[in-house]
Amino acid sequence: MSTHTVGPLDPTTGPVLVVGLGNPGDRYAATRHNIGHMVVNELAERNSQRWNTHKAGAAVAEFRLGIGGSKIVLAKPATYMNLSGKPIAALLKFFKIGPENLIVVHDELDIEFDTIRLKRGGGEGGHNGLKSTSQALGTKEYLRVRTGIGRPPGRMAPADYVLRPFSTTELETLPMHIDRAADAVEVLVEDGLTTAQNRFH
């Protein structure tokens, strides 16, 4: 694993790649593990973007944030979660983006549902999508928007919990949770990590 220093997010140096982690197909679309997909879908919808298939193995949408704003590349890997790293690395190479301008949006077991946390680097907490990404990039120093889904109830295995749909109670506030995570991505791009942390933590 590389330990080289990665600079701060800087949209003036080139595009920002925002990746929503998840599993492909209708079977997984509404599950907790796919909240990353839900957040980038919200960002695409806000900006009236359609998804296009990219040769890197992902669905991609490109736009500028606001009038004359930062260029954003949204992506949803077409692979299963544990193979997310390969298409992410390929997209970074294609768009000539460094890991400092990568934002990964993912589900987070260790954070309560309806809670957002942002950070750069750190461990993967057993998340296979993050493990694959760190391995493929040779660094853990990329930005993460950690979208809380909470711990499984009782003795349910985390692997089963993340692949189940949200509960009826959670579904009542899920749209607001997704909306807030999308807001966090926009603030992260426009104002940087510290400002975004101060606003959403």
UniProtKB/TrEMBL annotation:
Subcellular location: Cytoplasm
CDD domains linked to this entry: PTH
SUPFAM superfamilies registered for this protein in UniProt: Peptidyl-tRNA hydrolase-like
Superkingdom in the source lineage: Bacteria
Site residues, Discriminates between blocked and unblocked aminoacyl-tRNA: 23
Keyword tRNA-binding: yes
InterPro entries cross-referenced by the UniProt entry: Pept_tRNA_hydro (IPR001328), Pept_tRNA_hydro_CS (IPR018171), Pept_tRNA_hydro_sf (IPR036416)
Binding residue positions for tRNA: 28, 80, 82, 128
E.C. no: 3.1.1.29
Reaction(s) catalysed (UniProt annotation): an N-acyl-L-alpha-aminoacyl-tRNA + H2O = an N-acyl-L-amino acid + a tRNA + H(+)
PROSITE patterns membership: PEPT_TRNA_HYDROL_1, PEPT_TRNA_HYDROL_2
Residues the record marks as active site: 33 (proton acceptor)
Recorded family membership: Belongs to the PTH family.
Subunit description: Monomer.
Known role: Catalyzes the release of premature peptidyl moieties from peptidyl-tRNA molecules trapped in stalled 50S ribosomal subunits, and thus maintains levels of free tRNAs and 50S ribosomes.
Protein name stated in the entry: Peptidyl-tRNA hydrolase
Organism phylogeny: Bacteria, Bacillati, Actinomycetota, Actinomycetes, Micrococcales
Gene name tied to this protein: pth
